[in-house]
Amino acid sequence: MQLKNINIILGITGGIAAYKTPDLVRKLVAKGANVRVVMTDSAKEFVSPLALQAVSGNPVSDNLLDKDAEAAMGHIELARWADMLLVAPATANFMAKLTYGLADDLLSTLCLATPAPIYIAPAMNQQMWFADATQANLKILAQRKIQFLGPAQGEQACGDVGPGRMLEPQEIADLLVPESLEQLLAGKRITITAGPTREEIDPVRYLSNHSSGKMGYALATAAQELGATVTLISGPVNLQPPALIKTVSVINAQQMHDAVMQTTDTCDIFVGCAAVADYRVQQKTEQKIKKSDSELTLTFIKNPDILSDVAHLANAPFTLGFAAETQNLREYALDKLQRKKLNMIAANDVSDSTIGFNSEQNALNVFWSKGEKKLEVADKQLLARQLMQLVAQRYIEDTND
């Protein structure tokens, strides 16, 4: 059991996603955790304290000024008891309180009083998530080493569609990892590429692909959680740069190649997750191409092969490549592993429209010279953590051979 004998405070704030928290408690208990629930007043409007007491097996705490509990400094005792503190759902209001150190109820006070790591599972309307104030608070909290689980993207209770949904209970439970397991890559430097590239045809047109960058960004966060110093080299995406991670923005394949090569002298591990264009037009035009004839002929030339160039260096870092395939996944992935001299390759089937590009979920088949492992369909944050733990294990084994 991943969370066996781990003491978890589950803080519940007043969002509609609070109705999922009894199931979340069940999932945490099933992993071996000891769970004590702390609720805000507004949370009790959405879910019953009695239900949470029944599934956790412990009384629910909801009052900072409980005379019986505070006679023994109950909030300090509870703060010390916790191995980790999880707030799910975490509203925009609670994130703001946490950012500015307010302590006007039991849950916010515990967040200040506990030495345990704090995890936040945001849940709010997509417009509230994108609000400048929320994004500014997010950066401050990340700088304080508070870890975010989600949010997911999809249809919301208000009818909007976008980021802001709380992750499902099983995903949250799977993402919680005891602190002792999180430093496998301490002191290591990792370069990760993410997103698509754009190859300009004329001033208004370019060639690109469907990569959202979500997997690469999730890998960067997962590597940081494992203790690594991460450089993220990103093509054009609609994602916020991860806090405390050096992010280099590029547009085309040549720029990405140049940025990667500047890191290889000090890089221990290279992860080529970006969907880099294989070709670019031989000669882009300085003016917009006007529609005239019924056909247009363009001549393409090869772009530099970033993954191969890194793997073939004299002192090459441990190199993980990605293969996005629509058929013969195993055959093509193993060929790429050998042909490009990679240490590992992670292959995914992009013919399945429910996972992969632009999806919140993915599934991977990971291969190396003497083994393979299938990572089942999961939220990309969870999948990234699973993959980086596998990379760390393989890297440690290779360097100790």
List the helices and strands and how they pair.
Elements lengths: L6 E6 L8 H10 L3 E6 L9 H8 L10 H4 L3 H8 L2 E7 L1 H8 L6 H8 L4 E5 L3 H5 L1 H12 L3 E2 L3 E4 L5 E5 L3 H7 L13 E6 L4 E4 L2 E3 L6 H12 L3 E6 L11 E4 L3 H9 L7 E4 L6 E3 L18 E3 L3 H6 L6 E8 L3 H11 L4 E6 L11 E8 L2 E9 H21 L1
Parallel strand pairs: 1-2, 1-3, 3-4, 4-5, 8-11, 8-13, 11-12, 13-16, 16-17
Antiparallel strand pairs: 6-7, 9-10, 14-15, 17-18, 18-19
Helix pairs in contact: 1-2, 1-9, 4-6, 5-8, 10-14
Explain this structure:
The protein is of the alpha/beta class. It folds into two domains: 7-181, Rossmann fold (3-Layer(aba) Sandwich); 189-400, 3-Layer(aba) Sandwich (Rossmann fold). It is 32% helix and 25% strand. It has 14 helices and 19 strands. It has helices at 21-30, 49-56, 67-70, 74-81, 92-99, 106-113, 126-130, 132-143, 169-175, 214-225, 253-261, 306-311, 329-339, 380-400, and strands spanning 7-12, 34-39, 84-90, 118-122, 147-148, 152-155, 161-165, 189-194, 199-202, 205-207, 229-234, 246-249, 269-272, 279-281, 300-302, 318-325, 344-349, 361-368, 371-379. An eight-stranded mixed sheet has the order 12-11-8-13-16-17-18-19, sandwiched between helices. Strands 2-1-3-4-5 form a five-stranded parallel sheet, with helices on both faces. A two-stranded antiparallel sheet has the order 6-7. Helix 1 (21-30) packs across helix 9. It is globular and about 75 Å long. The mean pLDDT is 88.
